[in-house]
Design goal:
12 strands, alpha/beta, elongated, 43% helix, five-stranded mixed β-sheet, 12 helices
């Protein structure tokens, strides 16, 4: 008899591209996954997957079943979400966050999760986006708040918020106001880690032949750079929201300039599956919080 567990197994094999990855995700064994797929193929009387020693691919019948299975499991998930008591959501959700979120609205988010889902534990780690992308795909994280969106077919993204990036410095550094690109190039620039979009854009802007070699320092821990900026070591290139209190106290100031940088975007991202009830509920909370805290954010 066809059951939800077999359909779910089929979806994970199809989405992840291997029996072993699906077994890891479902906390079962590879033989158990193989048995469920074989049973499905027997029930339908058709071959659903083409297998080789490295990966699997959907047959024509498999592609048809995939579309039906996604809708079936998603409808089941929606039914459970509408009927289930929030207090019944339990276990541990592994959440990754970038430091910008950590330094802004993560405390409010944790309080909301505890209020709405009191039996759900959060296991939180702070990391950089490209590393959390790897951990999502390898199933080391369930959900991540990252610089996004992440362009992977196996991942889903929901927009959270975006922030402008400015040049920020201690008044003791005596950065001209307004500052030209030549003015800014004379100072150490302190910004996001390598391999992030803000870092690469900043490096491209200051790579003009007319400018001297520019010292762009990157770090996984922006809070360290905030301390260096307060001590007049260099110019921060980050969202001002991270250092609002420092700007309000006069320790730091935004430097007006015609060097414009694009906003940095953040998304909630997770492994694509129609049966990720807890993850999507937590992502919904994050989206709601971001929109309430920053009402100018797009819908």
């Amino acid at each position: 008899m066809l059951d939800f567990k077999s359909l779910e197994t089929f979806l994970w094999v199809a989405n992840l591209g291997s029996f072993s990855a699906a077994a890891t995700k479902l906390a079962t064994t590879q033989p158990a996954v193989s048995h469920r797929i074989a049973q499905l193929e027997q029930d339908f009387g058709v071959r659903l997957l083409e297998r080789d020693h490295r990966s699997v691919a959907l047959t024509e019948a498999g592609r048809k079943l995939h579309a039906y299975a996604e809708r079936t499991i998603k409808l089941r998930t929606e039914m459970l979400a509408s009927l289930r008591d929030p207090g019944a959501i339990s276990g541990t959700l592994r959440l990754g966050v970038v430091e910008t979120i950590l330094q802004t609205w993560l405390p409010d988010f944790v309080r909301q999760v505890e209020a709405v889902y009191p039996n759900l534990n959060l296991e939180i780690q702070c990391d950089i986006t490209w590393e959390m992308r790897r951990k999502l795909i390898s199933q080391e994280l369930d959900l991540a708040f990252v610089m996004g969106p992440l362009n992977e077919s196996v991942l889903k993204n929901r927009f959270l918020c975006d922030y402008p990036i400015n040049f920020i410095a201690s008044p003791r550094l005596h950065v001209p106001k307004p500052a030209t690109i030549e003015d800014l190039a004379r100072f150490r620039l302190l910004t996001f880690p390598r391999r992030t979009q803000p870092y690469e854009i900043l490096r491209a802007i200051f790579n003009a032949p007319s400018l001297p070699p520019v010292r762009i320092h990157s770090s996984n821990a922006l809070i360290t750079f905030v301390h260096l900026a307060v001590e007049a070591v260099g110019v921060l290139v980050i969202p001002p929201i991270i250092v609002e209190s420092r700007i309000a106290s006069g320790e730091l100031e935004i430097i007006p300039t015609d060097v414009l940088l694009p906003n940095v975007h953040f998304t909630a991202s997770w492994l694509n599956s129609p049966d990720t009830l807890a993850v999507e509920l937590i992502a919904d909370l994050a989206v709601k919080l971001a929109r309430e805290s920053y009402p100018s954010q797009p819908e």
